[in-house]
Amino acid sequence: QVQVVESGGGSVQDGGSLKLSCSASVSEDKVCKIDGTWYRQVPGKERESVSGIDTDGRTTYADSVKGRFTVSQDHAKKTLSLQMNSLKPEDTAMYYCKVELECRVVGGPFSGERYRYLDLWGQGSLVTVFS
Description:
The protein is built from no helices and 11 strands. By secondary structure, the chain is mostly beta strands. Strands 2, 4, 5, 6, 9, 10 and 11 form a 7-stranded mixed sheet that branches. It has a 4-stranded antiparallel sheet with strand order 1-3-8-7, with no helix packed on it. The radius of gyration is 16 Å and the shape is elongated.
């Protein structure tokens, strides 16, 4: 069972920076490509998409975070990250990652077998920006 663990949330002053990471616990006998989306949600409001990245590294951003947030991926570490700079109080929210992985077994009797892991969600990271 593949799990996704988020890290990096916290509290920061207006204008500060935080980096969120999202790592998938895929076994080391598999090499993977990871893609995904970062979402955020404030109580009483709908969840919104913040940023996404595909397996080729193409990125998308919500207008509200363009120029301040940067999404990245590390296929070898099976990790998605979100660097958040120039944070504002309105960025305060619970942030969630959703990832997908395309993997291939390397070595051993099952070498070459392919796996896809879809719609894997992190547990959420609270980001609080205070003025």
